[in-house]
Amino acid sequence: MSKFLVADENTSLWGHIFPDQRERMTRFVFEMETALLLAVQIETGPVAGWRDATPAELLDVAEDLATNRPFDDPAVWDLAVVDSAPAWAEQTVAVAKAAYDAICEETARAENLVPDSAMEYDEWLRWCGLDDSFVGDLQRGIPGTRDKYEASARLAGSISAPTP
User: pLDDT at residue 93 above 70?
Assistant: First the structure.
């Protein structure tokens, strides 16, 4: 089961200085297992409330999180790790996860990494000639080795969920 690091009104908002040098409060959902920032909203004021971040803004906040690493010790930042995404982010998180799974599956097909039958991870690495060293860049949609394995295994019908 996924765990999510959340910054929002129920924990602590995340202040972020955007490229225009203005600080704005944000709320976000970060998946701990994949280290993927799935949703970011930017406060627009007391009347308008919140708006979804653009892809460039999401990457900017992702770089901020990579630099400050609040996921290493969420309590220091007054953030919470929860079992499910908050209601305000549920749809965005579902879409982001589905899009990333689709990218991984497309990559596995394109690179001919889908076996005819179920394989354990180590066996699959030998079969396709890959090693376990490529982490990828999830935030930019570049799957790592384990992501490719999980996608190819889903496509081969051998697993229904990621393996540890």
Answer: yes
